[in-house]
Amino acid sequence: MSGEFRFINGDRTFTASPGDFIYIPRGTRHAFKNLGTEPAKLLVFYTPAGAEEFFLQHGDDPDPSGKLPPAWTAEKFAALGES
After folding, report:
1. pLDDT in tens, 52-63
2. What residues have CB less than 8 Å from 8, skipping those under 6 apart?
């Protein structure tokens, strides 16, 4: 939608820009990072549905003032492996 992102999709690393479409098969190693200094937007589809439960269970509630949530600690990352 806006900005540029660096993607990892399996063993491939590449840059995606507005208008690009990326497909990542289920179970594939993946990650993305905003390459810019300004906020960027991307649209994510999950099919079949259900992946949103991960974000609901483990995500941070947005701060009404618009501040970013605190960075995750090593303990929070470790807790993901326990759930």
Report:
1. 888 788 877 777
2. 29, 30, 31, 32
